[in-house]
Amino acid sequence: MPAWPAAPGPSSAAPPGGGNEHPRALASAPTSADPCHSPTGSHSYQYFYTGVSDPGSDVPAFTALGYMDDQQILHYDSETRREEPRGDWVQGAVDPDFWDRETWALRGWQEGFEGNLITLQFRYNQTDGSHTLQFMYGCEIHEDGSTGGYMRLGYDEREFISYDLITCTWVAVPTQARITQRKWNEDKSLLQYTRAYLEEECIAWLRKYLQHGTAALQSKPPKAQVSNRLLFQDGLTTLSCWVHGFYPKKISVVWLKNGEAQPQEMSHSGVIPSGDGTYQTRATIEIDPSSNHDYICSVKHVSLGVDLRVAWDKSRKEPESSMMLIVGIIIAVVLVIALLGAALYFLRRWGT
């Protein structure tokens, strides 16, 4: 049976293994956080632990990732065997001994994941194949000041067991989890500790990180650039709107044709991290350059008072388009020279 601690905090509790079913917190809740502080908007604090039975060169056997909102702030994996901050501001939110304590705790989690993966394969009657075990937990503060939390385990991308904060009990999903459900629900101290962590300790850590990360997590307005690329095969032009440097992640980008949105004609690349704490995305649309329509890239973001709009300049020739035109001309010239050379060769042979 998987042996899990009920309430890791902030990223650790009793290592999940060796039959240990009782939690033991290795890091206490912060005492410097202001319990009356109510941040603007909704914020979350989450952890994701992942273990795989068949690790590879680019897939560690165990990883632990911590997030404040949608920004990664903590990282551990079985290759480095060390928890490290992601972001300079995170260092100032904890005491100097924090990283050593968390590193030792997560090494225990790593060992526990290895043992529990074997146990679960036995419980599911599996003898081979690659399998994944995940532990996810976190809490959030909503815009109205209310709080919430969750804690659940997943096996092979399906939910195994979760904690219900309303009934304060563990709920099994597949039949293989019923043994674990019964044992954990019989442990009253375990249930009490889990509830206390999600309702109090996790929220305290969330407030603490919010206090130290205000500047790093504040809204950043997007920048937008419009470019065009000629498609030789059909004479159309692809307009591209690159939006970058924004935070938070949620954003809306749409192309306007004569002031009307064209969502069905567009393609989106998706919103991806830029590597500096901000995000970027790209929206494209194919048009007939000979038509007399006006095209504008319109961007909506929480950091903007009004929509950001960047128009396509029809008279401007983008370096990319010009370069492609030059390449096309060069290819055409080379083909002509090759054809002339072949013609002269055959003429000489026939003449001889």
UniProtKB/TrEMBL annotation:
<dbReference type="InterPro" id="IPR003597">
    <property type="entry name" value="Ig_C1-set"/>
</dbReference>
<dbReference type="GO" id="GO:0006955">
    <property type="term" value="P:immune response"/>
</dbReference>
<comment type="similarity">
    <text>Belongs to the MHC class I family.</text>
</comment>
<dbReference type="GO" id="GO:0005615">
    <property type="term" value="C:extracellular space"/>
</dbReference>
<dbReference type="InterPro" id="IPR011162">
    <property type="entry name" value="MHC_I/II-like_Ag-recog"/>
</dbReference>
<dbReference type="GO" id="GO:0009897">
    <property type="term" value="C:external side of plasma membrane"/>
</dbReference>
<dbReference type="Pfam" id="PF07654">
    <property type="entry name" value="C1-set"/>
</dbReference>
<keyword id="KW-1133">Transmembrane helix</keyword>
<dbReference type="InterPro" id="IPR050208">
    <property type="entry name" value="MHC_class-I_related"/>
</dbReference>
<dbReference type="InterPro" id="IPR001039">
    <property type="entry name" value="MHC_I_a_a1/a2"/>
</dbReference>
<dbReference type="GO" id="GO:0002474">
    <property type="term" value="P:antigen processing and presentation of peptide antigen via MHC class I"/>
</dbReference>
<dbReference type="InterPro" id="IPR007110">
    <property type="entry name" value="Ig-like_dom"/>
</dbReference>
<keyword id="KW-1015">Disulfide bond</keyword>
<dbReference type="GO" id="GO:0042612">
    <property type="term" value="C:MHC class I protein complex"/>
</dbReference>
<protein>
    <submittedName>
        <fullName>Major histocompatibility complex class I-related protein-like</fullName>
    </submittedName>
</protein>
<keyword id="KW-0732">Signal</keyword>
<dbReference type="InterPro" id="IPR037055">
    <property type="entry name" value="MHC_I-like_Ag-recog_sf"/>
</dbReference>
<dbReference type="InterPro" id="IPR003006">
    <property type="entry name" value="Ig/MHC_CS"/>
</dbReference>
<keyword id="KW-0325">Glycoprotein</keyword>
<keyword id="KW-0472">Membrane</keyword>
<dbReference type="InterPro" id="IPR013783">
    <property type="entry name" value="Ig-like_fold"/>
</dbReference>
<feature type="domain" description="Ig-like">
    <location>
        <begin position="221"/>
        <end position="301"/>
    </location>
</feature>
<feature type="transmembrane region" description="Helical">
    <location>
        <begin position="323"/>
        <end position="347"/>
    </location>
</feature>
<dbReference type="InterPro" id="IPR011161">
    <property type="entry name" value="MHC_I-like_Ag-recog"/>
</dbReference>
<keyword id="KW-0391">Immunity</keyword>
<dbReference type="InterPro" id="IPR036179">
    <property type="entry name" value="Ig-like_dom_sf"/>
</dbReference>
<keyword id="KW-0812">Transmembrane</keyword>
<keyword id="KW-0490">MHC I</keyword>
<feature type="region of interest" description="Disordered">
    <location>
        <begin position="1"/>
        <end position="38"/>
    </location>
</feature>
<dbReference type="Pfam" id="PF00129">
    <property type="entry name" value="MHC_I"/>
</dbReference>
